[in-house]
Amino acid sequence: MAKPSSRRKKATSAAEINSKSLSNSANEDISVEENPTTATITVSAVEVEELTDEEQSDRLLLERKVERAFFEAGKALAELRDRRLYRSTHSTFEDYCKDRFGFERRHPYRLIEAAGVVDNLIKMCPNWTQNQIEDDPATVHSDQLQILPTSEGQVRPMTKLEPQQQQEVWLKAVKLAGGKVPTGKIVKDVVQRIMERTQVPNTYQVGEVCQILTKDNPELRGKRGCWGIVARVNDFSCTVKSWDGEYTIALQHLKSYDYLPAECQQMREICDRVNRVYSSELEESVQKFLESLGKLNRAYLTGLEEKVLSLLEAEIAN
């Protein structure tokens, strides 16, 4: 009986020896891998090629063109709209911009408004910043250039401010950005601070289009999803003109659609037209159609809606 026991001891002993050997080998490998002092790092020096004076001038010129791209687009769009240079192919400016440039309805107006803000900001610097950069960029040093917006998104929060406030906001935003072009969020934060500083409880403007919110207000039952146009601005409420009359509504029950001026004008025209027709005693089905127009979430009528509304207007005119 002792012999089998002896074999097991020998086998166990050999296994232990092999296990210890493997363990030591593994430990040795780990210690080598975990010891960074034994590693050799080779660093290759990369020579940075300096730009020539001509290349530096070209870079400056191209950078300014990129920065001013949205500004130039806004200026061009304004002229196309004001001179109605689209009239030979399109009946409306919006349709022209969509077909020609792929712009959605609000985008060209945003670019036009943004260009107006940039025009105002340019007035803060000497005249040479407007022309000399393009005429002879080599004579202008980078630290002399006025810091101007490089995208429409940086300008959008300022479009409803007065010109002096726009300049104040931009200067503060540039300072907060460490002397660089600020992001749209930084600009928006500065605008919010100025609004709080002026302590104006009601920031809505006459003519602005708002959505009526009915939550927790039984008096607005049936107006859910309807739009209204601000007719009078009160301290903590607005009197809005809807498709079926006027209502005085608290600020917490209003939400601006943030429409552009041209879109607000379109909504005022739609409101007047629907209101005139709705005041007439028409069939219930017709009234339902007019109700649906009173809940539009866009600043225009479709072709079919325009035809039906025009037909109703002609009907009550007879």
From TrEMBL:
Composition bias type Polar residues, residue spans: 15-36
Record region (Disordered): 1-36
Biased composition range(s): Basic residues: 1-11
Protein name: Site-specific DNA-cytosine methylase
